Amino acid sequence: MFQNLLHYPFAPGIEAFTTRRDSVLPYPVIQGHQVHGTEVAIISRPGITREELEGYDAFITDLPGVAIGVRTADCVPILLYDPRNRVIAAIHSGWKGTVQKVAAKTIGILETRFKTAPEDLLAVIGPSIGPESFQVGEEVVTCFKDAGFPLPLVWSFHGTGDGSPMSGGHHIDLWQANRWILQECGLRDENIRNPEIDTYTDPSFYSARREGIACGRNINAIKIWE
Length: 226
Hints:
Layout: E1 5-8, E2 14-19, E3 40-42, E4 58-61, E5 67-72, E6 76-82, E7 87-93, H1 95-99, H2 102-114, E8 122-125, E9 135-136, H3 138-146, H4 151-154, E10 155-157, E11 170-172, H5 174-184, E12 192-193, H6 208-211, E13 218-224
Parallel strand pairs: 3-4, 8-12
Antiparallel strand pairs: 1-2, 2-13, 4-7, 5-13, 6-7, 6-8, 9-11, 10-11
């Protein structure tokens, strides 16, 4: 139902939300067929289909009345709004997309195509797997190190653990990793919001790690009202 939407108070004239489990979308949302990559689509007409957006993980539009969104179930959704030029973006940034800095690529396109100044951008990092739940192997830690991320900020080692799921071992903080990317691009820290909702521990959101890859998906959407 509509009351199951987690709304973000971006700015007047902007609606942004994440669906909870079994929510119903209040209107159509343009989405792509995501592949954990860095391709960015500029949505220049309403009604474009998911089939036309094969292989895209981020979306930008300045069309009023057109909602764009990304599907997640532990991966990090990032929603952006440029209030000066009235442009929005929705980004799917799982750990692979984070390592590849898909958010930075999206912001670069906003700068070149829409004259966005990063310091003007407002951002939300939506519900996604939290640092205490994202246990990874050493090879994932190496990917972040090789990509230039500051390891003391994004990595921690929890020892042998207590035998419970996700305890012990290496952990990556995708929230901090994506906040760092946004800040490196020029966003102001005070303009980056994160409700810090861990999809793995909050059963009101879908979690592929908790439920399996075939589980449902949370829709993270943003729209400029006409």
